[in-house]
Amino acid sequence: MVRNVVTAAIETAGLVGAAMDRVDGPAKVTGAARYPADFGYADLAHAVIVQSTIAAGRIAAIGTAAAEAAPGVLAVITHRNAPRLVRAPGGLGIGPPPPLQDDRIVHHGQHIAVVVARTPQEAAAAARLIEVDYEPAEPMLDLDDPRAERVDNAARRDVSRGDVAAGLAAADVVVSPTYTTPTQTNNPLGLFATVAYWDGDLLTVHDTTQGPAFDRRSLAVTFGLPESSVRVLAPFVGGAFGAGLRTWPHVVLAAVAARVTSRPVKLVLTRAQMFTSVGYRPPTVQRVTLGATRAGELVAIDHEGIEPAALEDDFAESLTRATAVLYDCPNMSGRTSQVRLNVPCPTWMRGPGEAPGVHALECALDELAYELGMDPLELRLRNYAETHPQSGRPWSSKALRACYELGAERFGWARRTPEPRSMRRGRMLVGYGMATAFYGYVQAPCQARATLGRDGTAVVRSAATDIGPGTYTVITQVAGDALGLPPDRVRFELGDSDMPPAALQGGSGLTAALSSAVHDACQELLRSFAELADGGPVTAGTYTAILDDHGLAELSADGASARRTDLDAEPGIFAAKFAEVEVDPDLGLVRVTRVVAAVDGGRVINPKTAASQIIGGTTGGIGMALLEHTLSDPGTGRIANATFGDYLVAVSADVPDIDVIFAGDPDPMNPVGVKGIGEVAIVGVAPAIANAVYHATGRRIRSLPIAPELLL
Length: 712
Ligand code: MOS
What we know:
Strand content: 15-25%
Number of helices: 16
Bound molecules: dioxothiomolybdenum(VI) ion
Structural class: alpha+beta
Shape: globular
Number of strands: 26
CATH class of the largest domain: Alpha Beta
Radius of gyration: 26 Å
CATH topology of the largest domain: Aldehyde Oxidoreductase, domain 4
Number of domains: 3
């Protein structure tokens, strides 16, 4: 069923819906786009971080004399001489505790010193001269460690309904597999960098962040400053995948180094440091118990997940949010708990929660389909949730049925012969797999300002970021349509915390929030022009004349947005993912040969950048299924593969043509009709591939990544 319930939709005069090229494309390919590490200043000094080589214990002594005497060194900062900093209370954008506050070590790779010198080479050379005497303790590194504290930081997102035990007792068929997913590292291409300088008590920071206003708040609290004393700039960010959603200790250290040396300081993390310093996807162990009738009707779903948390940080993700809402099942329970270990702080990464959670659920569904002798797609359709299964309220929009139908048709699902190992291509085993995807995207409050000048050009500003999805472009399209201007008469500026505060670029929520705020600002601006015009016409052709008539250089208006609360409806984004694999029966090598992603995308502002996001997320899903795995040494917690040579990501040769289909109508939850597509892009890809591997080989691999040795 595809409902059409649009209210107050934006005018689509031509730009919204068009496959426009990226407005920032030329700046990026010519090198004109400036990323945080590209900002330099006279007197710029360079900071290099020294990290702990043990995971637990304390620093008994730290020798800095040789480093201090080394050429070019301006300062060596350790816990003995670092300024005391304020630990910010938890909350969105807030980082782990500030660094260098005492002698305790809680994880391998913890920052224990920062060396500041005239050049990066001098700083790196001096950093190697620091001598540390540790008093080590036995680290807690394993989820099973009996000493480790169990906590339930994500418990507020646990969901249950009905009576799972009674449902399971009444079921004809029960499956109860356990899945594990590994640590994965966000690993954007751009190394995280901070350039910080002080002007008296005013702190300016160029930073790799997904939310300048949040970064500003975090830094202001840490240094005991009013927010107005901190400015964060991030016009371009070289990817982040969630790692830029918090203010990390190295950002604080760059500002500390700038204060101590009274110079601007640049700090660029090394690739190895990126594995310990800016979060990662925590590993999970998940058991999914499904009970069904012979006819394939789900009567009980139980999903329990466990993951690590850092010792001094409360980051936690819920693994079972999608499980609560994907299927129409009367008895359901989903719980996620954490175990505190001597590990670096995890964080959000590419579909946090849902990417691993839906992997376990959708693989278990596939196992149930085989137990029932039922087609996996038919099993999903039999349990389709027409309304929100927990609240009983209607969905604001849901085109999942269309996604299943269009995706299956495009993929050729009907050609699948159900028996494992029944399809071949030459000597290769061929498998077809599918999975459903859901993401509980957020739409946080957001503000923007629109200004029209005498030159007939609109400038729109908001303190958002564009870490790659195409925010510069789609907001240009929204503002252009709202004001009746062509794209070359609209300039959208972002990435400055002095601009109107924007939502974080996370949780797949920024396009919905920001496009709505910009739409509102443009409407306000049109109203202001109408007042000035006093009944006369207001069109793109009259703006300049109206300003002239009133002797005005420009006219500005502010806009704001929030998710609608007046609708009796539940938001959510859905997708159906279909994957074909070829498995070499002798080598165990899996190659993904085709993917079809059918996405319930709401209003798609730009089909080109939107499809690009789905392709990117699918690529991440291929990596999650087959390659990505952050390995740490079980005895010491040292990360053993902290390079791009050893941490494998999907590259072009691993990625087949990806067919992207958008279905559905504009969503009524915001005036532009946007749903957040960023993260549903990766969700469901790994289970579709894992299910295809089972279909190809008859081997059910319940751990990721599906490495060749597991299939031999
Ligand atoms: Mo996303 S993991 O919310 O950047």
